[in-house]
Structure formats: structure tokens, C-alpha cells
Amino acid sequence: MVDMQNHELEQIIKNADRAINNEDFEHLMEFYSEDATLVVKPGTFAKGKAEIVGHSLLSLITLIIV
């Protein structure tokens, strides 16, 4: 069961990475929850999909699901 969960998580990460590399931010937003928080840089956060979309065009660093 754990191996299957790890495989599913690895696939999600690969798909998200592909969207980032292709600069396909519309597809990338499918991986974010409505209340997601993106750490743009230490001390700077984008909260919610609308803010994340704005910051995603500039920088994708770390995602924290709240």
C-alpha cells in the first residue's frame, strides 16, 4: 500500500514539475487547493489561487498546503 501511495505522489510531483517547466500555469493550478499558500521567498507568501497565479508567473519556489 505504501509503495502505491509513493508511486502516486511521485506521479503528481512529476506532472507538477512538467507543468512548471512548460510554464503551463493553468494546468499547474490544478495541483493547488483553493486555500494553498506559496512561499515566494522567505517572509513573502501568496495566499489562494489568485495570488499564486500572479506570483507563479515570476517565481515558483515552495508550496505549503495550509
Primary descriptors:
66 residues, alpha+beta, Nuclear Transport Factor 2, Chain: A, three-stranded antiparallel beta sheet, globular
The strand count comes to 3
* Helix-strand sequence: HHEEHE
- Principal-axes geometry comes out as globular
Annotated CATH topology: Nuclear Transport Factor 2, Chain: A
Largest sheet: 3 strands, antiparallel
List the helices and strands and how they pair.
Blueprint: H1 2-21, H2 25-28, E1 37-41, E2 44-47, H3 48-56, E3 62-64
Antiparallel strand pairs: 1-2, 1-3
Short overview:
By secondary structure, this protein is α+β, with helices and mostly antiparallel strands. It is built from three helices and three strands, in the order ααββαβ.
Question: Could you walk me through the main structural features you see in this protein, from its secondary elements to its overall organization?
Answer:
By secondary structure, the chain is of the alpha+beta class. It has helices at residues 2-21, 25-28, 48-56; strands at residues 37-41, 44-47, 62-64. 50% of the residues lie in helices and 18% in strands. A three-stranded antiparallel β-sheet has the order 2-1-3. It is globular. The N and C termini lie far apart (26 Å). Mean pLDDT is 79; it is low at 60-66.
